[in-house]
From TrEMBL:
The keyword Translocase does not apply. Gene3D superfamilies: 1.10.1530.10, Hypothetical oxidoreductase yiak, domain 2. This is Malate dehydrogenase. Signal peptide: none annotated. It comes from the Eukaryota. Pfam families: Ldh_2. One of its GO terms (molecular function) is oxidoreductase activity. Keywords: Oxidoreductase.
């Protein structure tokens, strides 16, 4: 059995608070109830938002709640209804999302894809008329927990400058794949096809950053910038790889590939025709794609081989001993570990502030935060990080 060092983030008392998952759920449901959202739809949205923050993807968690609330309140997203299969053939299905909340559409489609994979070895479902569906990883995880390799893709509002373009015409179109290894271990890739997600720049700015790394964003004219304010006020994202000399054309190609699997295949809005982010005048009409693959249709022993591959990769000699080699999903595992220790989800106080504003606006009770002891017994701080050894058998 191999041992892997995972650096667990240290809880920062001056800037951070913890909130129990139960309290968060009540808060999300209260907010959605105020705008008339169907209870079963609200539950599905609450699940994915909380999962996102638990995994450490704050850009897609409670940070986005106000946008879903606004979409439902304005009527841009339907309060109720169910997705409908438009066409079905063997392992495939084309679905109409009925303009309900994105997670409701995504759950419906991935369930269908898994059902087809159980029968045919693969399930491939494409949907039009959907909405912002949260983290793509949520759907891939559903398939993975049922022994499948899961993949999920979506198009998004145009926020990316294709290589050489002075105009934004692509979304930050995520690519996601989750695959099961042994004893709950897995490979879990969930990434934007931009260098970073838009929300990451928002979170950086909310935390007071005045500079972001090169390759993240561009000015309104498509010129690379390191100023988060310029990116968020009329600028946009760079494709994965940044500018042309560092391989941005590969990111542009990946953005387009995801769009072909989503908007083009689904017959939904695509590219420049997708409505602008945070606007509610028209339905979003997003296109999404969900794939489930049964690995047992191929060589036996998939999980064991994947485990060997993960262990081999994690046990490579690191360039810097304090930074072990990680595989996709390890940073999230480290974050979930910290949350488990605190029996809640950790937020920066600044991230919680806007939830208070939303609570006041809707007239709902704000979720209480936990005050925690300075250090749990036996914990020692090393360079601002708590080092926790997780045994991955």
């Amino acid at each position: 059995s191999f041992q892997t060092m995972i650096i667990k983030k240290e809880f920062n008392h001056t800037e951070e608070v913890a909130v129990s998952k139960k309290e968060l759920r009540v808060f999300v449901l209260d907010c959605l109830d105020k705008v008339g959202c169907s209870p079963s739809h609200a539950q599905q949205l609450a699940d994915i938002l909380i999962c996102s923050d638990y995994r450490g993807h704050y850009s897609h968690g409670l940070n986005r709640l106000n946008i879903y609330v606004e979409d439902v309140a304005s009527g841009a997203t339907a309060k109720d209804g169910e997705p409908v299969v438009l066409r079905e053939k063997g392992a495939t299905a084309w679905v109409d999302g009925a303009n309900v909340l994105g997670p409701v559409v995504g759950n419906y489609c991935m369930k269908l894809a898994v059902k087809k994979a159980e029968q045919f070895g693969i399930g491939w479902v494409v949907v039009r008329n959907s909405n912002h569906f949260g983290i793509a990883g949520w759907y891939a995880q559903y398939a993975m927990e049922r022994g499948m390799v899961g993949m999920a893709f979506t198009n998004t509002s145009p926020c990316v400058f294709p290589t050489r373009s002075a105009e934004k015409s692509l979304g930050s179109n995520p690519i996601c794949m989750a695959a099961p290894a042994e004893k709950g271990d897995n490979f879990f890739l969930d990434m934007a096809s931009t260098t970073v997600a838009y929300g990451k720049i928002e979170v950086a700015e909310k935390r007071g950053a005045t500079r972001i790394p090169p390759g993240w964003g561009a000015t309104a004219d498509g010129i690379e910038t390191t100023d988060p304010k310029v990116v968020l006020r009329g600028g946009g994202l760079q494709p994965l790889g940044g500018s042309e000399p560092t391989g941005g054309y590969k990111g542009t190609g990946l953005c387009m590939m995801v769009e072909i699997l989503c908007g083009i295949m689904a017959g939904s809005a695509f590219g420049k025709s997708i409505r602008q982010w945070k606007t509610t005048e028209t339905p979003a009409d997003l296109g999404q794609c969900f794939i489930a693959i049964d690995p047992h249709c191929f060589a036996p022993g998939f999980e064991g081989r994947l485990q060997d591959f993960l262990d081999e990769t994690r046990n490579l000699t690191p360039v810097d001993d304090s930074k072990p080699v990680l595989v996709s999903g390890d940073p999230e595992r480290a974050h979930m570990l910290m949350c488990d220790d605190l029996d809640g989800i950790v937020y920066k106080k600044s991230q919680i502030k806007h939830l208070g504003d939303l609570a006041a606006k809707l007239g709902v009770k704000m979720c209480p935060t936990k005050i925690l002891a300075e250090h749990a017994p036996g914990e020692t701080s090393i360079d601002g990080n708590l080092t926790t050894t997780i045994k991955l058998q």
